[in-house]
Amino acid sequence: MQTPTLPGTRVESDAETRQRIAPPYRVVLHNDDVNTADYVVVALVRCVPSLEVARAAEIMLHAHTHGEATVIVCHKELAELYRERLESCGLTATIEPA
C-alpha cells in the first residue's frame, strides 16, 4: 500500500533520509615510505573486515602511486573507528566527507 501524497509534494526516499541524517565519510589511506606493501595489505584486511586481500592490494597500490586512496565509504562513527585502527598499525589515514 502506497502512502498518499498531496500534489506538488515529494516523498523522500530511505537513502536520501539516511544520507541527510548520517552523511557518508570516506576513509583515506595515505602513502608512506616506512611500511612494506605486504604489511599495508595485511593491516587493511585486519582493520577493515569487509575488505578482501585483492581489494586491499588495489588500495595499497593506488595509495603508493597516487599518494592516497579511498579505503571505504561509511558513516562517520565507523570511519573514525577504521581510521583509528589503521593508525594503530602505523599507517597514516584520515577521514573526510564523501
Structure description:
The structure is a single chain. With 98 residues, this protein is of the alpha+beta class. The chain has a single domain, classed as Ribosomal protein L7/L12, C-terminal domain/Adaptor protein ClpS (Ribosomal Protein L30, Chain: A, 2-Layer Sandwich), CATH 3.30.1390. The chain is built from 4 helices and 3 strands, in the order H-E-H-H-E-H-E. It has helices at residues 14-21, 37-47, 53-66, 76-88, and strands spanning 24-30, 68-75, 92-97. The chain has a 3-stranded antiparallel β-sheet. Helix 2 packs across helix 3 (53-66). The radius of gyration is 18 Å and the shape is elongated. The two termini are 34 Å apart. The mean pLDDT is 90.
CATH architectural category: 2-Layer Sandwich
Helix content class: 40-55%
Largest sheet, order of strands side by side?
Answer: 2-1-3
C-alpha-based Rg, rounded:
18 Å
Based on the structure, what is the oligomeric state of the protein chains?
single chain
Q: Residue-averaged pLDDT, rounded?
A: 90
| Span of the ends, CA to CA | 34 Å
Number of strands: 3
- The chain-level structural class is alpha+beta
With helices defined by DSSP (H or I, 4 residues minimum), what is the helix count? 4
Low-confidence segments:
none
* Total count of domains: 1
Order of SSEs: HEHHEHE
Estimate the global geometry from the Cα principal axes.
elongated
The fraction of residues assigned to DSSP E strands is: 15-25%
Q: Could you give a short account of the major beta sheet?
A: 3 strands, antiparallel
Let me know the CATH homologous superfamily.
Ribosomal protein L7/L12, C-terminal domain/Adaptor protein ClpS
CATH class group: Alpha Beta
CATH T-level topology:
Ribosomal Protein L30, Chain: A
